[in-house]
Design a protein that fits this description.
Number of strands: 3
Shape: elongated
Distance between the termini: 43 Å
Number of domains: 1
Order of helices and strands: HEHEEH
Radius of gyration: 13 Å
Largest sheet: 3 strands, mixed
Strand order of the largest sheet: 1-3-2
Length: about 55
């Protein structure tokens, strides 16, 4: 399953892989695609939204 997730991420030009699978999380990134836990992704998303709104 792991190779399919990684290959699909590269083939679709994914910006991030969000997962709870430890065997993927230990890689931290694959082909310059960050691998994040769901909470890390949401934290980053919130910061980006906050920065965007603050700049308006």
């Amino acid at each position: 399953m792991m190779p399919v997730i990684l290959e699909t991420s590269v083939a679709t030009n994914a910006e991030v892989i969000v997962t709870g699978y430890l065997y993927l999380l230990v890689l931290r990134e694959f082909n310059a695609i960050p691998i994040l836990r769901p909470q890390e992704f949401l934290n980053n998303l919130f910061v980006n939204i906050h920065n965007f709104v603050s700049a308006l």
